[in-house]
């Protein structure tokens, strides 16, 4: 797959540590609410955990950027991911405002506001550096979003194409959707996928023709 396995493992480790740091922050917030220390101690405990989360988030995104920066790819940002991210950010920022103005809870204000800002920067970074993407390689198709998906010709059970959505049903019973309305330069990636399907000698001539429809003379 021409991907550094050690880099993938490091990426997975950073993702796990990042998630664990967020859980630790949530647990400490609950603990401080139930058994509070003085204001200064509470503030610096939360600040330390927020800084750890920010550092791990930055390393995770930098590792993704380094891993994929030389790979020809097309941005693939799902509407679900964008919508969920925006809702999550709004919830965090609203929580920060209410925590400060209504409840006067400084630790929760600091945590919610900081995480909200970090998530805004992360979403901008993911979009700018195309960290969610689709790429066509000679022997597989890569789809990298929240998870890494590799589609090999021998793993495909069925392929369907309707309403500008390409659907791969795999032999392991997984289903992968490619909504071209969510993909950068959709017509270019359609041609690449059509060529890939042709090169793999998959019996899907109707789908190949449909993918190439707009480019017929």
Structural description of this entry:
By secondary structure, the chain is an alpha+beta fold. It has helices spanning 5-34, 39-68, 79-101, 106-128, 186-199, 205-211; strands at residues 74-75, 133-136, 141-144, 148-151, 156-162, 165-170, 175-179. The strands form two sheets. Strands 1-2-3-4 form a four-stranded antiparallel β-sheet, covered by helices on one side. A hairpin with a 3-residue loop joins strand 3 (141-144) and strand 4.
Strand content of the residues, in percent?
5-15%
Count of helix runs: 6
Give the biggest beta sheet: 4 strands, antiparallel
The global form is: elongated
Spatial strand sequence of the major β-sheet: 1-2-3-4
Q: Which structural class should the secondary elements be placed in?
A: alpha+beta
Layout of helices and strands, plus pairs?
Layout lengths: L4 H30 L4 H30 L5 E2 L3 H23 L4 H23 L4 E4 L4 E4 L3 E4 L4 E7 L2 E6 L4 E5 L6 H14 L5 H7 L6
Antiparallel strand pairs: 1-2, 2-3, 3-4, 5-6, 6-7
Helix pairs in contact: 1-2, 2-4, 3-4, 5-6
List keywords for this structure.
217 residues, alpha+beta, four-stranded antiparallel β-sheet, three-stranded antiparallel β-sheet, 59% helix, 15% strand, elongated
């Amino acid at each position: 797959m021409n991907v550094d396995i050690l880099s993938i493992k490091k990426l997975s480790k950073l993702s796990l540590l990042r998630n664990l740091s967020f859980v630790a922050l949530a647990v400490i917030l609950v603990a401080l609410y139930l058994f509070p220390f003085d204001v200064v101690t509470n503030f610096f405990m939360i600040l330390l955990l927020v800084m750890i989360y920010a550092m791990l988030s930055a390393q995770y995104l930098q590792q993704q950027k380094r891993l994929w920066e030389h790979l020809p790819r097309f941005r693939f940002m799902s509407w679900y991911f964008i919508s969920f991210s925006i809702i999550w950010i709004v919830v965090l920022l609203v929580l920060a405002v209410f925590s400060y103005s209504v409840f006067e809870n400084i630790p929760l204000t600091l945590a919610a506001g900081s995480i909200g800002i970090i998530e805004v920067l992360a979403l901008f970074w993911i979009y700018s550096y195309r960290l969610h993407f689709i790429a066509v390689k000679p022997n597989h198709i890569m789809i990298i979003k929240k998870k890494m998906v590799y589609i090999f010709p021998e793993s495909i059970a069925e392929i369907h194409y309707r309403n500008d959505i390409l659907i791969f049903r795999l032999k392991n019973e997984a289903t992968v959707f490619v909504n071209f309305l969510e993909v950068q330069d959709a017509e270019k990636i359609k041609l690449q996928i059509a060529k890939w399907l042709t090169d793999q000698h998959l019996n899907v001539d109707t789908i190949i023709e449909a993918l190439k429809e707009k480019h017929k003379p």
